[in-house]
Amino acid sequence: MTTILDESVCRAWAYLSRVAEPPCPQLAALVQSVGPVEAADRVRRGLVNDELARHTEARREIDRAAADLELLAQRGGRLITPDSDEWPLLAFAAFDGAGARPRVGPPLVLWAQGPVRLDDVAQRAAAVVGTRAATPYGEQVAADLAAGLVERDVAVVSGGAYGIDGAAHRAALSCDGSTVAVLAGGIDIPYPAGHSALLHRISRHGLVFTEYPPGVRPARYRFLTRNRLVAAVAGAAVVVEAGLRSGAANTAAWARTLGRVVAAVPGPVTSSASAGCHALLRNGAELVTRADDIVELVGRVGEFAVEEPRPATALDGLGEAERQVYEALPGRGATTVDEIAVASGLAAEHVLGPLAILEVTGLAERDGGRWRIARARSARAAQTSRLV
Amino acid sequence: MTTILDESVCRAWAYLSRVAEPPCPQLAALVQSVGPVEAADRVRRGLVNDELARHTEARREIDRAAADLELLAQRGGRLITPDSDEWPLLAFAAFDGAGARPRVGPPLVLWAQGPVRLDDVAQRAAAVVGTRAATPYGEQVAADLAAGLVERDVAVVSGGAYGIDGAAHRAALSCDGSTVAVLAGGIDIPYPAGHSALLHRISRHGLVFTEYPPGVRPARYRFLTRNRLVAAVAGAAVVVEAGLRSGAANTAAWARTLGRVVAAVPGPVTSSASAGCHALLRNGAELVTRADDIVELVGRVGEFAVEEPRPATALDGLGEAERQVYEALPGRGATTVDEIAVASGLAAEHVLGPLAILEVTGLAERDGGRWRIARARSARAAQTSRLV
């Protein structure tokens, strides 16, 4: 049963959803401390600390909560709040381990539409993602994997985009399976426009959700932010096809940060649409060739096989680009600048600067033309002596 | 300069080359202890220990040495003996670490033909191998890789077969690069017959060699035995395409046993000709997509990055199938019966019995539906606690 919320509480959540660009850890902290109604009141009146004020002052006088909720009701949608039974508590708990960093953090509240429950999905789901510029091979594989997954009661989560995302959603729908589209804008803004009908079908038979209130248009940084939710609600992120710079690689990086399994489908080495997958595979992603492989990986979700903890304190003084690059270094072994670019979602030319900073701060080290996380000297010496 | 051998020494080597099916560690030990001439004399007269007698009695009265050497001379070929400058001493030293097991061990002597020197090759070579049933994709990739390798002065070693092997040899030749065919029969027995012209070209511009004396016909076990030499003289074994049961997977297993880098080229998951490659990649093979990747791997050869030592003593009481299966278990993590079959070269149905024996002797353990090398209980407990 979904909890029935008091109207004032709903309005408070709707107001809070728009007042700061998500995720906003300061706003989340306030809501957790005083509840949504009081939090909304304080924000509206400007009675918040300086940092939260900076994040909310531009929009604090905008209150479209009533209209937003009416639009949601007209579409037969619902708010999913942290108090709701449907809130995927365990899935979002993964953000706790990822630390309070920019763009990291659970959503405040979700705008949702569709008969499938998010808490059910998060129990057993795989993200099937990839490039919009998919090849016929990639679309075929995405469809085969999605069909196989829903046959085995694994929900297919994706981003609703052209190419791989669309092929996965469509195949899941045509098998009467659960599929979930996570949007990077308002629930009333179908994006891409050419997928309006597909998104409508997903909202009737599966689930569409977003952390953005109605009317918000997708933007590049919102796609990257949205990707963390695609990764969070799925046990494994499977990249079917991706170029060397691809949003799908960003979803994979989120999955790794959140302790999810990252998997990739190999393809012809002659196809640039598989180059990102091959880079991921080199970087430790699981190689999957069929739905059964993924089912096995999703089955491991409960184990929360988070990577070895990294020295979080040393990272405190770093900027966001350095953190992104650091996160993109493999837990074991060394990797190339190109592979770091893929994993971090940064262009290769923007990776070198942060690497240099990580090197001088002793967090990363060169290994020939490759880069690795810097280890204690003794461990490195032991490793070297084994190779000689 | 190749050492000029005394005729009686040559005849002794030629006689010894035929008298036991190679590799015969007992015969090698005798030769090392008393030299080839005395060893040949003792074998001929039956003055050897029981075990060596068993290996030599069937053929000890056959002496075709003079005729074999004349045939070799007519072809412009040569014997490469352990005393020769051309003997790839470092490459064959890898057999020392692999232990005195059936079918393991360096060759006694090699029959060779071609202007390329084996010691030069072994300094910087990659084995490019794969299925005879190659697809156009696989043949194209094999040719591209071989061309890229020889351009970077890396010799291309292969087995002269149809499919991937042939594509690699041909591309290397057409770039005027060094290519080496290792035969599973006599140097005068071109196999497959359809590759007579190709093998002739290799023997004129590259190198053809074999441990079998003239007239010996290839047989299934000789291909498997030959594969160890393909692996031994190359720094890395690259499998371009291979089905789930393939001789190429056997070459890869040899490469791993000998501490060589194992690499595989990914391909479409819809192609059964890439299924063996994907299994190898899951099992820890390096993913390569272009010649530069391989050059980098071959460059690491000098490091002799042999895997962690395994408890050799516990294996002493085991049969050959159990050893093969044990060797096929990954150094780290667990694997499936199908993947063990690929890595061991045994049919899946012949893997289960040996696995059961390895389990009861405490050498392997189940991990769900997978199998792993059994570790000390404390290490296992630590690992489990990390996952929970």
Automatic annotation (TrEMBL), chains A, B:
It comes from the Bacteria. Residues 310-369 form the DprA winged helix domain. It holds the Pfam family DNA_processg_A. GO terms for biological process: DNA-mediated transformation. Signal peptide: none annotated. SUPFAM superfamilies: MCP/YpsA-like. Residues 104-298 form the Smf/DprA SLOG domain. Belongs to the DprA/Smf family. This is Predicted Rossmann fold nucleotide-binding protein DprA/Smf involved in DNA uptake. It comes from Mycobacterium rhizamassiliense.
